[in-house]
Amino acid sequence: MTTIFRQYTFDDSFEQVFVSSKFLKEYQIALTLAIDYDEDGVPTNGVFRPTWDLTKVTPLAITQFKKDHPDVNVKVFISIGNNGTQYPFCPIEKKSWIDNATKSLTNIIKDKEYDLQVDGIDIFYQHIETDPSDFVECISQVIKNLKENGVIKVASISPSFAVNKEYYFSLYKSCSSLIDWVDYQFQNEVTSVFDPNTLVDIYNKLGTDFYPKKKLFAGYSAENEDWATLSPIVFFLGGIDIIKKRKGPGISIHYHNYYVETPLHH
Known about the structure:
By secondary structure, the chain is an alpha/beta fold. The chain has a single domain (3-254), classed as Alpha-Beta Barrel (TIM Barrel). 32% of the residues lie in helices and 22% in strands. It contains 6 helices and 9 strands, in the order βββαβαβαβαβαβαβ. It has an 8-stranded parallel barrel, surrounded by 4 helices. Helix 3 (132-148) packs across helix 4 (161-174) and helix 5 (196-209) packs across helix 6 (232-244). It is globular, with a radius of gyration of 17 Å. Residues 1-266 form the GH18 domain. This is GH18 domain-containing protein. It comes from Lupinus angustifolius (Narrow-leaved blue lupine).
């Protein structure tokens, strides 16, 4: 059983994860988050900045991780968006947002100071304060620009229950050929998931009604506050079923380094 594993992280905790080519064909490091708000929380209309720990996520750390795991394909993503209600998607003006986002994300990805060998971007807006057509237009155009300019090779979207149908599925339909992976966030279900079969049923329905299963990850948050919705054991058992029996391509987990007293960026 070889699969894809994605870790969402804002620090270098990916260095502590056991990675073996016996189980994994690809390991994705998704850096959280790049946001288009300044340090005071004022919207910057598409001018993105990184909020992950720049002292820990360094070119050397990424290079060393790749050297340590030569048999596994390591890919780096920048996640743009929000976790919770802070920093919602809310462009002040669409055209300038698209231009600013294209330019600022290009700068982050190509910047020699960061030089994190970024392969792609991940769209992780869980709170959106605009209508679906604006979201679709802005995000699809930025993905298109970055791919056509050779800035990124891959793009993923990370929907959850509240924003899936209107926003993310509309986005997917508008530019499905540009979206390589769909990482559905199960920790944001409205109703708690108490058994693995329920998780698998939701996954199957997503694969029938919305996205092709060959692109569909099962996503999960191991942060303590998300356990009420979905416990680790339920996700673990359901995730194994999805990968083994349903032929799902991969899973993702959000967790941070509990050994370091670093505040989470929300």
